[in-house]
Write a structure and sequence with these properties.
Blueprint (H helix, E strand, L loop, with lengths): L4 E5 L4 H9 L5 E6 L6 H7 L4 E4 L16 E4 L6 H6 L1 H21 L4 E7 L10 E2 L10 H13 L8 E7 L1 E3 L10 H10 L4 E4 L5 E6 H13 L8 E4 L5 E3 H11 L5 E4 L9 E2 L2 H4 L10 H12 L13 H7 L1
Parallel strand pairs: 1-2, 1-4, 2-3, 4-5, 5-7, 6-14, 7-11, 8-10, 9-13
Antiparallel strand pairs: 10-12
Helix pairs in contact: 1-7, 4-5, 6-10, 8-10
């Protein structure tokens, strides 16, 4: 039986490497990536059944890369607010213009399914209101706006023969072979590993929704394999149990690590607050077993506690890599 071919754009990043580890040999995988965070030759040795193509989505991705591809998983792009704010024009090019170009190439080459990595940041600040996929989007940052605008455009390409699925990820955390310490939970855990206290901006009453990177990868695989007709094209990815106030998150760290102290920075208020509803996802796949914050924090701590690494190395921080290129 002939395998379906999957093109993972940005497949060597924080989410991508977790995804590759979960995919079995039943999949024919092509990874297109700029390999800013790792060496392509190292990945070729580890993943012998996967084809790796080095290139930039803004200049190098062509029609030929989509030949005989069944599904495209588009993970590439500038992936947080600081990286996007550094060069807004490049953010628009990378996250908006190139995403639309990629979706067009996919559709023109008769790709059947297009899975897009979006973000719950598109909702912006909704205070105490529980957010679902029908909530009006109010993107507040360059990054959030670039994700929302590109999502809005590519959803117009959806048709019977070209299924566009946008997955709005909650704030990511957790262990990956391309580790990031510029994500809230991961940063807090790094501070514990370095013997530092945790800083909470403002009063900490703002809500955030979190999701483990492994559960994001599992969700992607679920939609890769989903054969029935989908009623919706947009899904929030996460679980209710990982909706927490920032002060509650800090107190969780305090509970796990009793010697830890919480410092409040009342001069630096973060007014963004959003609590996300994930019922639409849960109707299709069981998100009640998603990894908890406590499990993810402990996993990172246990992995790194005996390792001698430079936590300040630029490789762990998207903005530093962007600035160095």
């Amino acid at each position: 039986m002939k395998k379906n071919k999957y093109l993972i754009i940005g497949g060597a990043g924080y989410i991508g490497l977790v995804l590759l580890d979960l995919l079995s040999q039943d999949y024919e995988i092509i990874v297109f990536d700029n390999f800013f965070f790792n060496k392509v030759d190292d990945l070729k040795k580890k993943y012998k059944n996967i084809k790796f193509i080095k290139g930039d989505i803004n200049t190098d991705i062509k029609s030929k890369h989509f030949k005989n591809v069944n599904t495209v998983i588009h993970l590439a792009g500038l992936a947080n607010d600081p990286s996007s704010d550094y060069n807004p024009n490049n953010t628009v090019l990378t996250n908006h213009i190139s995403t639309i170009k990629i979706a067009k190439l996919a559709k023109n080459n008769k790709v059947k399914k297009f899975i897009y990595a979006s973000s719950c940041s598109v909702y912006g600040d909704h205070g105490k209101k529980l957010i679902n996929e029908n909530t009006t989007e109010r993107p507040l940052t360059v990054y959030a706006l670039s994700k929302f605008s590109s999502e809005k455009e590519i959803l117009k390409f959806n048709s019977k023969s070209f299924n566009v699925i946008s997955l709005r990820f909650a704030t990511l955390f957790g262990l990956s072979k391309r580790m990031r310490f510029d994500l809230g939970v991961n940063t807090m855990t790094k501070n514990v590993l370095q013997g530092k206290n945790i800083i909470v901006n403002g009063d900490g009453k703002q809500y955030r929704s979190f999701v483990h990177v492994k559960d994001v990868a599992k969700s992607i695989i679920f939609f890769m394999n989903y054969k029935k007709k989908l009623r919706y094209n947009v899904f929030n990815i996460g679980a209710k149990k990982n909706n927490v106030k920032i002060i509650e998150l800090a107190k969780l760290f305090e509970k796990i690590f009793p010697k830890l102290k919480i410092n409040k920075n009342l001069k630096n208020f973060d007014f963004r607050s959003y609590e996300v509803n994930f019922d639409r996802l849960n109707q299709l796949m069981n998100n009640k077993n998603f990894i908890t914050l406590k499990e993810g924090i402990t996993e990172i701590y246990d992995y790194y506690k005996s390792k001698k690494i430079n936590f300040n190395s630029k490789i762990y921080y998207n903005l530093r890599i962007v600035k160095s290129k």
